[in-house]
Amino acid sequence: MASYRELEPSKNGKPRIKITVELGYDEEKGKRIRKYKNVTLNSLSDRAIKKAMTEFEIEVANTEIENDLENITFEQFVQRWMDVYVRVDLAVKSRNSYESCLQGGILKYFNNMKLSKIKTFHIVKFFKEEKEQGKRNLNGKYMVLKSIFSKAIDWGVIQENPMKGVKRPYVEKRNREIQFYNESQLRQLLSILDQVYPKHRLQIKLAVFGGLRMTEIAGIRLECLDYTNNSILIDKTLQYDKETKHFFLGYTKTKKSRNVFIPESLMQEIKEYEKGLKKLKLKSGELWTPMLDNENNPINLLFVKTNGFPSHLDSMSNRWKEIVARFNLPILTFHGLRHTYASYMISKNVNFKIIQEQLGHVDIKQTLNTYSHLTERDKIKASDLFDEIL
Fold first, then answer.
1. pLDDT of residue 205
2. Which CATH number fits domain 183-381: 2.60.40.1510, 1.10.287.690, 3.40.140.10, 1.10.443.10?
């Protein structure tokens, strides 16, 4: 990891910083291993500082690798792989996923092994033990290891890729039936919603009546609301960077925006909620601390805490679980409310193309494959039509 501190400006008045890169701990000498570099910049903008730090990290990483290729451990290389590649080139969501896989068993298993000594056998053995212990996300771990050793080859750290002889782990697909509320259960849910806190009530309704995902609901801004056409623009999702512990607006799952149409009564309910939100903002004054974009402009999210800042993404799911328990509703995940929307639309013979566009699926095949089992009764009804002429 790199850090910096400001220095006195250069003779020509340009700003300077001293960058420090941490390289671990020397057990024999009892000292931290650090590399330093003084850098003159054109400005002290975040972008310029980050660029200078990244360039020095790469320089140090390359130097260290060149100095001790044979002895670099798996853990040491992974740290450099994260700093030089993952954190620089990949999206935060991918980085979080990679970090989860590493902490989920990979680092513990290969930790102090020398990278050059890791063979295909070791990796095959790792996946064998993972399967025997019933560990999850084996395909994700396979892709992480594949990326690590691929970069080690590209950077000249190892000569042979041990992943070449490793087959993608076969994990028997669990035929998990999609869970959703049927019409009577849906009516039961709607009958208790007036007793639910307004913010949570609207979030539930947007999942049920709009088929929205949690991150899509959390990413709705006030400018996305179209009260004239009763629609909401879904163009961003609220994401959380586990490493920096910051919220940010990311792409939708398909990286495409869409307009989702909402019942008029629900849009009017949202309109009243927005009015209350604006009154709260005015009343809060300087205590209103919304999430900011990269240019420090406030982001006007629809669903926020009482200080204007977004709630953690898990809170929507947690509040839903509490509501299910409190009102003795059938157990269902929050995502199951999205499935409830789709199943209800299918039961009312709504065109699959409309359902696909509302859900934001890439193409209609995805919608058909996901919900094909819900049409079994329709197939039976269709075949019964021949009884009329037999």
1. 97
2. 1.10.443.10
